[in-house]
Amino acid sequence: MPPANRKNPVRAASSDSLYSVHDFRAEFPDDDACLNWLWRTRYSEDGEHAHCPKCDQARQFKRYATAQQRQAWTCTGCGHHLHPTAGTIFHKSSRPLTDWFYVMFLVSSTRCGISAKQVERELGCNYKTAHRMLRLVRSELMEQDDTPLSGEVEVDETYMGGKARAWPKRTREQHLDRKVPVWAAVERGGRVSANVLTYARGREVWENVHTYVLPASMLFTDDSRLYDRVTGKYRHHRIKHQESIYVSGNVHTQTIEGFFALVKNGIRGTYHSVSKQHLPEYLNEFVWRYNHRADDEPMFKTLLESSAASTR
Questions:
Q1: Domain 152-299: CATH architecture, name and number where available
Q2: Cα 263 to Cα 280: distance, rounded to the nearest angstrom
Q3: Out of 64, 245, 261, 303, which residue is the most buried by the measure of CB atoms under 10 Å away?
Q4: 36-44: long-range contacts (C-beta < 8 A, 24 or more apart)?
Q5: Under 8 Å between Cβ of 279 and 180
Q6: Sign of torsion over alpha carbons 75, 80, 82, 83
Q7: In the chain, which residues have pLDDT < 70?
Q8: Residue 265: its pLDDT value, please?
């Protein structure tokens, strides 16, 4: 076997990565490369001609160097400017596009998330900037799909927050009041949807089931009384956790519990603590990665295309 070429590293066959950091550096080495990608993706396939909204026809565009370092292409016919970053999360940001693209690469390539403190260290920016960049990526590019789930669907709820041993003198009700209820549903072998509940009460849970799960679906839940009223509208199967039964044939909630474990381990290991205010954004991140886990296209490319298609 010939020696490896250090100047042209090759991804190992055993790696499950579809897009490595070497691929990122080669495709987006500087800010101009990122800006040109946005220009070609949003306006001009050939990089030279685009539709001018002022002329209302295809025109030739050129980018001129300006003292303001304007990130724009100018119509050679009427002088109208097109800004590739306008309407995206990059608009009016003083950070280079390479930083934004790298943050999206980190978010899409990690399995347990990336913290704002780590982004702060990676980019050399302040914490407020790192937090804003991650918040925009999670809330706008990783927004959940509202398409209802179908087929075999597992539904469950959990609580996010500290462990009970931290408050030994409190009752169970007082303990749960300090935690945040989260509801989720998952198609076996498919997508997942999750959101934060105001209260873990029957009405709110029923509304979520009716909104996110099609009536013809086969529903799998535990023996919680929260799901008593869904039995008449779904083919409903329940697993009796109170009797220490966790799997009975194909009746179980292991898939959704595995997703909850992924979220909790990620928050505990990477973020340590998440407030109720920002928890929906973090749920978006974990749900997005879970739903794109089996894609043939790299997650980074999917996220990048979402950033070019976004309109704020």
A1: 2-Layer Sandwich (3.30)
A2: 12
A3: 303
A4: 37/304, 38/84, 38/85, 38/88, 38/90, 38/97, 38/308, 39/73, 39/82, 39/84, 41/305, 41/308, 42/84, 42/308, 43/73, 43/82, 43/84, 44/73
A5: yes
A6: positive
A7: 1-3, 162-177, 231, 311-312
A8: 93
> Which pLDDT score is estimated for 13?
80
